[in-house]
Amino acid sequence: MKNFKSNMYNFYNEERPNSLAAAIETKLVNARTEMVKRNFVPHEGKNHRVEFVKTIRGVTFVDDAVSENVSSVWSALQHFDNLTEVVWIMNINDIDMVNDALLEVIDEKVKAIIIQGVYNAAVIDFFSSLGKEVSYAMNLEDAVRTAFYTCEQGDAVLYSPGASCEGMYGSYGARGDKFQNAVAQL
User: Fold this and answer.
1) Measured between alpha carbons, how far is 166 from 90 in angstroms, rounded to an integer?
2) pLDDT digits 0-9 by tens, 95-143
3) Which of 185, 182, 172 lies closest to 91, judged by CA?
4) Order of all β-strands in the sheet with 133-137
5) Is 51-184 in CATH node 3.90.190.20?
6) CB–CB of 116/91 below 8 Å?
7) Distance CA 87, CA 147 (A)
8) Positive or negative, the Cα torsion across 174, 127, 149, 119?
């Protein structure tokens, strides 16, 4: 038994002083990754959740109309590799909702932002200050058209509103259908 204890002590403290910390960190990262996969990766039968819609002239359209908060937007943006530039169509109307994690992923993956909905100068000014191209569109059809013409071949358009569907649409399904219909009209 004495030999076992000394070997354990040596393993964690002398030979590999950071191995326990590394093992714990790996487990935490894996747990978080599994949680993200379970909650946000598209599942069969889950319409409007990071759902591929169509590719037109090399531009991919993705519907995430189910997104009602910044965490959902963050998760949707995580689906894109760093080689794909994303034009994000959104409806966030309260900049206090935006957190550092979302700002980081916007910086990494978003090429341009199309703000769709009621005009809000503070929101437009805030997103413009991020150094991204920012446009405003009153309706979803104009937002989709603007996003398409902002893209280059290989880019993606992500509709991830990040706000409740109350008011403009009765449900996330209705707004997702509206997005998909707008894409079909291109």
Assistant:
1) 14
2) 998 999 999 999 999 999 999 988 889 999 999 999 999 999 999 999 9
3) 172
4) 51-56, 59-63, 156-159, 86-90, 110-116, 133-137
5) yes
6) yes
7) 6
8) positive
Q: Which two tokens stand for residue 67?
A: 């997104």
Instruction: Specify the DSSP element, H or E, that contains 26.
Output: helix 19-40
Residue 42 to residue 124: CA distance in whole angstroms: 30
What are the sequence ranges of the domains in the chain?
A: 2-40, 51-184
3-state secondary structure 140-172: HHHHHHHHHHHCCCCCEEEECCCCCCCCCCCCH
| CA 138-107-124 angle, 5° bins | 30
Phi, psi of 176 (to 5 degrees): -65, -40
Record the tokens describing residue 184, joined without a space: 């079909």
Backbone φ, ψ for residue 151 (5° rounding): -80, 155
pTM above 0.90, yes or no: no
